[in-house]
User: Which sequence fits this backbone?
């Protein structure tokens, strides 16, 4: 396999706070990798630097060999991003937004088919502001996929979704894997990470403190569940656990 | 499934431009309340001028009326100013605050394309407002056509450029949609008061009147009055409009935040 996403020695400070302290990460083609960490661990900072929204103070990012800053236009044709928090044009309808975002890409998916797949077919004429939180989330996923990305970043993928919609979105991610799409999934839902991810990267206080399969993390930490492993690793990683003292 | 796109793709297709402009148009017609000030207030001003004896000829102007020399230029500058420094910045500040610009930043569309789409739609609104004011003024109150029409058009273009650039600066320095409207209103009434919105500038303190003549509202009015009279546009008016455009463009480019 070859690397789709390579992050090398990434540093980022905001004022006196170090958000990232030398993060490195490699994701191979077609992998689904989970990025987990407590709030403020640096996950969103890392993803936003990878997506070209911010510049790193030090270090490099390459996605399919492209630099997010230098190769902005080319990268965005192959990268799909679902952001944790963002609104859309408030009075545009679901179908209009899907077609608008489709128009940004040269080789995108059929927006209507995507809305159908995400259970938004009946809401095509509903304006964004009138959607429920879960419907907005599903639309956000649809818009991240409409460009037929080769790499996709999904931040808090299923937050706000009911159990049925969650399962449907999980199936969608599994289909993406089958298509060879590389997925970076940021999540606090350990069942989701366990089900979907080939590998899990744990971030704590701006550093990678573990990088293993879900089963491997549970095994090496010697705890019963992935959630226990996460808690043990992140408490230790922030210097709050007994290992840090 | 078709093949993935080439990684050296040059950017978004042309359809993205039309899509963004169409999105802005839809945003406006689905919430037309923002058009009240730029379209209705100038008409109200014209009606007030028209009904208050503004048909009276101004001595020494060869037959031009108060409506021609004062009512129409003021109404047109209200259209340009309210769209430029109030409406457009509030849309941009809302997009930034709610994360629309950030969301678009991770697509092939650069947020500057949204800004340009907003400018295009604002220009269309401006042309509609100007046309509406002139047609109603002409049909209802006999508004005269400017004697030097190309100059009138040139002044409108320069004034639009200055007020839109000023509006971008308002959007750049306003952290929230609410503050954008507040700053825009202060700018609108500030340049309007100094430029003749509330009456002849000769009743203002001399220093205020002089500054008002070079700020976009007053400079625009003086330029339009010159076009109606077929006289040369004052150099200070043209200079004021050009300097405002240049200065506020540079400042807004430096200060504008996409996220």
Assistant:
């Amino acid at each position: 396999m070859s690397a789709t996403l390579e992050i090398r020695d990434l540093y980022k400070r905001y004022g006196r706070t170090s958000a990232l302290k030398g993060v490195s990460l490699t994701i191979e083609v077609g992998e689904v990798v989970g990025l987990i960490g407590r709030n403020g661990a640096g996950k969103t900072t890392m993803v936003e630097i990878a997506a070209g929204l911010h510049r790193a103070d030090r270090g490099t990012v390459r996605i399919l060999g492209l630099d997010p800053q230098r190769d902005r236009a080319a990268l965005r044709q192959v990268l799909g991003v679902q952001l944790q928090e963002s609104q859309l044009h408030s009075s545009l309808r679901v179908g209009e937004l899907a077609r608008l975002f489709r128009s940004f890409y040269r080789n995108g998916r059929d927006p209507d088919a995507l809305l159908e797949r995400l259970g938004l077919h009946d809401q095509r004429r509903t304006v964004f502001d009138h959607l429920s939180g879960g419907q907005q989330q599903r639309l956000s996923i649809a818009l991240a996929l409409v460009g037929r990305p080769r790499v996709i970043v999904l931040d808090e993928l299923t937050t706000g979704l009911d159990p049925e919609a969650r399962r449907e979105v999980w199936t969608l991610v599994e289909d993406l894997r089958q298509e060879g799409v590389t997925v970076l999934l940021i999540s606090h839902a350990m069942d989701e990470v366990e089900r979907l991810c080939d590998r899990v990267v744990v971030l704590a206080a701006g550093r990678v403190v573990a990088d293993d399969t879900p089963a491997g993390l549970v095994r090496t930490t010697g705890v019963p569940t992935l959630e226990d492993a996460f808690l043990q690793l992140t408490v230790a990683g922030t210097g709050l656990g007994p290992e840090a003292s | 499934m078709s093949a993935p796109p080439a990684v050296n793709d040059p950017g978004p297709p042309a359809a993205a431009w039309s899509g963004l402009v169409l999105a802005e148009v839809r945003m406006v017609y689905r919430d037309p309340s923002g058009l009240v000030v730029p379209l209705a207030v100038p008409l109200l001003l014209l009606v007030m001028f028209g009904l208050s004896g503004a048909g009276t000829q101004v001595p020494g102007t060869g037959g031009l009326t108060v409506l021609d020399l004062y009512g129409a230029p003021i109404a047109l500058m209200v259209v340009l100013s309210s769209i430029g420094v109030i409406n457009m910045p509030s849309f941009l500040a809302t997009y930034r605050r709610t994360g629309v610009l950030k969301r678009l930043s991770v697509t092939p569309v650069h947020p500057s394309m949204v800004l340009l789409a907003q400018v295009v739609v604002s220009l269309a609104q401006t042309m509609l407002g100007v046309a509406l004011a002139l047609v109603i003024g002409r049909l209802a109150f006999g508004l005269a056509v400017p004697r030097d029409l190309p100059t009138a058009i040139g002044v409108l273009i320069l004034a639009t450029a200055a007020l839109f650039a000023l509006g971008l600066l308002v959007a750049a320095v306003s952290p929230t949609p609410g503050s954008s409207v507040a700053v825009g209103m202060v700018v609108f009434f500030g340049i309007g008061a100094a430029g003749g919105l509330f009456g002849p500038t000769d009743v203002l303190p001399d220093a205020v009147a002089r500054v008002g003549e070079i700020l976009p509202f007053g400079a625009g009015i003086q330029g339009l009055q010159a076009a109606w009279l077929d006289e040369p546009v004052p150099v200070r008016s043209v200079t004021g409009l050009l300097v405002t455009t240049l200065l506020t463009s540079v400042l807004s480019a430096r200060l504008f935040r996409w996220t």
Notes: Chain A has one domain: 3-244. The CA atoms of residues 89 and 97 of chain A lie 8 Å apart.
